[in-house]
């Protein structure tokens, strides 16, 4: 799960962007008879999970083409407890139910009266997601006439109890960033030319470490700290006199290389990495006390000093 944020001085402009692997698709469908009686909120949700696996076993076609069968998804009780409301990040919802995911998507449809009708709409609109091999687990829930399906793949275990020193991991992220900046790159629809390498700044490293450890200790995922601070505030606390500050964060990746690869695959995070206005960087990670699989929080802070 990834997020990016940038602040510039003297006019402070902010950019935040969510990206894969945590995506939420929504479909609002018009159905006849919406004024009719509604079944209990959870009725049919388990049946929808069963129908999804039946479709994966014999999909027939997807988007007008013959589709290969896919292995069944394990019905995970934690995924059935996930609730995604307005402006809810899926990673936050998964955290609340204690599920650490390497990949996660959610799709929803509004209007169907029963699981079979909901499945028809899902199959028509989201057959690729239903058949995706990126996921191994599934859960679904119903809220009135809104049906939501959560797909996930659990995060792998941490490599070992001797996870790299945060400073060493930060330098590995620096190396990955500079390797990326050495060549032209497309970040979404925008092309970036090669950019000069950024250098390691220990103050930005401390700012990244503080935020990663705070997220890990207090189990949240946001650019805004629990104390209300943003990236520029934390850089200032660490003693960094900044002209420009940017921040990327990630959750669940098991190595510095994975974190960098995820950021580069996301347009907003990639734009921070390729931004020629940044000249320095610090990075670190924090691990939740339980050391459960995948509970690693990464922070990367870019800066340009005054």
Automatic annotation (TrEMBL):
Which PANTHER family does the entry mention?
A: SCP DOMAIN-CONTAINING PROTEIN (PTHR31157)
Tell me which InterPro entries the record gives: CAP_dom (IPR014044), CAP_sf (IPR035940)
What is the name attached to this protein's record? CAP domain-containing protein
Q: Which residue ranges does the record assign to the SCP domain?
A: 177-302
Q: Which organism is it from?
A: Massilia consociata
Record's superkingdom?
Answer: Bacteria
The record's section on Pfam families has: CAP
């Amino acid at each position: 799960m990834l997020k990016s944020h940038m602040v510039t001085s003297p006019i402070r402009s902010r950019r935040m962007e969510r990206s894969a692997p945590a995506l939420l698709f929504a479909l609002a469908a018009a159905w006849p008879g919406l004024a009719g009686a509604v079944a209990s909120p959870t009725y049919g949700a388990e049946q929808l999970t069963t129908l999804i696996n039946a479709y994966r076993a014999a999909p027939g076609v997807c988007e007008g083409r013959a589709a290969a069968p896919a292995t069944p998804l394990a019905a995970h009780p934690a995924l059935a407890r996930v609730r995604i409301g307005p402006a809810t990040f899926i990673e936050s919802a998964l955290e609340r139910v204690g599920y650490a995911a390497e990949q996660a998507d959610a799709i929803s449809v509004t209007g169907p009266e029963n699981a079979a009708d909901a499945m028809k709409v899902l199959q028509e609109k989201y057959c690729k997601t239903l058949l995706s091999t990126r996921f191994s687990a599934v859960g679904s829930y119903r809220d009135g006439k809104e049906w939501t399906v959560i797909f996930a793949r659990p995060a792998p275990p941490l490599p070992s109890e001797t996870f790299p020193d945060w400073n060493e991991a930060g330098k590995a992220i620096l190396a990955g960033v500079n390797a990326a900046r050495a060549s032209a790159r497309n970040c979404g629809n925008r092309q970036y030319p090669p950019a000069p390498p950024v250098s390691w700044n220990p103050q930005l490293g401390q700012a990244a470490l503080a935020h990663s450890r705070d997220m890990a200790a207090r189990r949240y995922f946001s650019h805004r700290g629990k104390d209300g601070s943003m990236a520029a505030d934390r850089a200032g606390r660490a003693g960094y006199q900044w002209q420009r500050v940017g921040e990327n964060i990630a959750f669940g990746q098991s190595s510095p290389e994975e974190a960098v690869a995820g950021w580069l695959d996301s347009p907003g995070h990639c734009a921070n990495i390729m931004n020629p206005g940044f000249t320095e960087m610090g990075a670190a990670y924090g691990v939740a006390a339980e050391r459960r699989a995948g509970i690693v929080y990464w922070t990367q802070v870019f800066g340009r000093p005054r």
